[in-house]
Write a structure and sequence with these properties.
CATH topology: Rossmann fold
Largest sheet: 7 strands, mixed
Structural class: alpha/beta
CATH class: Alpha Beta
Strand order of the largest sheet: 1-3-2-6-7-8-9
CATH architecture: 3-Layer(aba) Sandwich
Number of strands: 9
Number of domains: 1
CATH superfamily: Alpha/Beta hydrolase fold, catalytic domain
Helix content: 25-40%
Shape: globular
């Protein structure tokens, strides 16, 4: 599966992994430069996997083919997301997780992370995965299929910590939509921490430091 992703390792024989999905129109290289900023010398060796989304037409961009985890059919992203595409990307994420487990990294040592569209996918993938994961990092995103969480969520990840962050001036995924999604998960009993930063649809240095602290809390006993 390596041809479909950027595969970075911070040391030999990694015992932990982070599976990170990019946003609309980007690719697996988008967050590759963040790895040195996130990692610490005393951490165990980590395998970072940054998959490339498939190239497909995106309705909201005039049908232009680009890397996308699912189609967005209108400005109201909360209700116009492509459920078929989301479910296909959930399945693809589960295949990556299975691949990492089969490679020798326990599910409990794997973090899911994603930005924007990628965050929407990893939240849904975590909720439905049948083995407990280390946690989920959902950045500048929301939870499509939120009305199906109660019926489809797997008990394995009912207590899995979630780091959810958003920019206060995000013009792409409205802050209110991200906060609403966080509230849905909190109401369902998930241990979610909400982080808000003075930025738009992006990542800032303060957020990177908070993400590193979250990774350390999940990977370092």
């Amino acid at each position: 599966m390596n041809n479909a992703a950027v595969d970075l390792r911070t040391g030999a024989n990694p015992s932990h992994a982070v599976l990170w999905l990019h946003g609309l129109g980007a690719d697996g290289h988008d967050f590759e430069p963040i790895v040195p900023e996130l990692t610490r010398r005393h951490w165990p060796a980590i395998r970072f996997i940054f998959p490339h989304a498939p190239i497909q037409p995106v309705t909201i961009n005039g049908g232009m083919p680009m890397r996308s985890w699912y189609d967005i059919r209108g400005m109201d992203i909360a209700s116009r997301a492509d459920e078929t595409g989301i479910r296909a990307s959930i399945a693809a994420t589960h295949r990556w997780l299975d691949h990492l487990v089969q490679s020798g990294i326990p599910a409990g040592n794997i973090l899911l992370a994603g930005f924007s569209q990628g965050g929407a996918v990893i939240l849904n993938a975590m909720l439905r995965y049948p083995e407990r994961l280390a946690g989920a990092i959902a950045l500048s995103t929301y939870l499509p299929l939120h009305d199906k969480v109660a019926a489809e969520a797997h008990a394995a990840n009912a207590a899995t910590p979630i780091f959810m962050a958003h920019g206060s001036a995000d013009p792409v995924v409205p802050l209110a939509l991200g906060r609403q999604s966080a509230d849905v998960l909190i109401s369902a009993g998930y241990p979610l921490t909400w982080h808000q930063y003075r930025m738009q649809h992006s990542v800032c240095a303060e957020e990177v430091a908070d993400i590193a602290a979250f990774i350390e809390s999940r990977f370092i006993a």
